[in-house]
Every structure is written in C-alpha cells, then in structure tokens.
Amino acid sequence: MRSQLLKGILEGCMLAIISRQTVYGYELSMKLRDYGLSVSEGSIYPVLLRLQKEKLIKGELRKSPNGPNRKYYYLTEEGAKALEEFRTNWEGIKTPVDRMLVGGEQ
Description:
This protein is an alpha+beta fold. It is built from 4 helices and 3 strands. The protein has one domain: Orthogonal Bundle (Arc Repressor Mutant, subunit A). Strand 2 and strand 3 form a beta hairpin. The longest helix is centred in the C-terminal third of the chain and has 26 residues. The chain starts with a helix and ends with a helix. The mean pLDDT is 91.
C-alpha cells in the first residue's frame, strides 16, 4: 500500500509543478527536491511516461542552451482536471490524517 500511496501523491505533486511551468525531467526532480521530496530521476521518468500515456501531460522536444535537446512537459486540459481532482481528494484526507497522527480531536 505504501508504494501505491506514494506513487499517487508523487503524480499529483508532479502535475502541480508542471501546471505552473513547462519543465524537463531533471529540472522536475530538482523542483521536487526543493520542496523536500527526494525522488530519483529513475522514479520520475516512468511516472512522466505514464502521465503522457494517460494524456495528462504532453512532451515537446526543445533545443537546450547546452547539450542535447530536452523534452519539456506541459499540462493538458485533462491534466488540469486530474490535478483539480487530486487537490480535492488530498484536502479530503489530509486534515483527518493529520488529526489522527497528532492525536487531535475527532
């Protein structure tokens, strides 16, 4: 269950970052790290592929200022809907789980 839960959360976090700006894979892993999520590039690319197959994001090759072309990802309309659904679901579980973990009131 843990890996499935984390995978779903990672997908939602990746959609949130991509919704703000187009990013390439390595840049995405750095942004996740900036937020405190240490995720290897090897974990990110399979999720990017899955999100593309589900038509939640699209990738576009662009010239890089240094080195080979990079694939930049951006959110599709379906991706925006999926992100909104993730936010709704997250809000629905975040508060009750936080209360349970800290022993707050029911």
